[in-house]
Amino acid sequence: MSSLSLLTPRSHHLSISLLLLVIILPLTATTAQESSLLEILRNHGLPAGLFPQSVKSFKLDQMGRLEVHLDRPCLAQYETTVFFDTVVKANLSFGQLKVLQGMSREELFLWLPVKDIIVTDQSSGLILIDIGFAYKRLSFSRFDEPPVCRSHQGLSFRMGGRKGFGFGDQR
Ligand SMILES: *[C@@H]1O[C@H](CO)[C@@H](O)[C@H](O)[C@H]1NC(C)=O
């Protein structure tokens, strides 16, 4: 950027910045973001499908703090239904994602925060999902691909609430 400041007329400056914006914007689109998140997950021994397709952007710092931004809150279907909020915060380390905020799982008709996602052993093909008082074992293969995330307006207002949308037909 600093070399551009040699072109002193302000109008030049502006049009060059706009041009750069036009060139750069398409490169930061979802697919690029998504594929590098998948790579990061794989490099940490985690399955690529841990986050849904609708990931818009993410940040990862050197401490392993991961922040993932989605288009909107939504529901993804694994062996179990997982709710993703617009922002998911987690600590990433090898084989483990400690979720601090933004992911919940349906359990006995309640939505409980997902605390921890652990790949016990790559060869066992198992993933443990900890929701605070219980672990659920899921097969690694169910997390191979980022799932489609269905929009679910209003669900975030029902989180932790009573029996809500769609539970009746799952009995
Ligand atoms: C997440 O990482 C931060 C920074 O390393 C740390 O301070 C925090 O205690 C971690 N949280 C959990 C739940 O491990």
Automatic annotation (TrEMBL):
It comes from the Eukaryota. Transmembrane segments: none annotated. The keyword 4Fe-4S does not apply. Keywords: Signal. It holds the Pfam family DUF538. Residues 1-32 form the signal peptide. InterPro entries: At5g01610-like, DUF538. The keyword Ribonucleoprotein does not apply. This is DUF538 family protein. It comes from Pisum sativum (Garden pea).
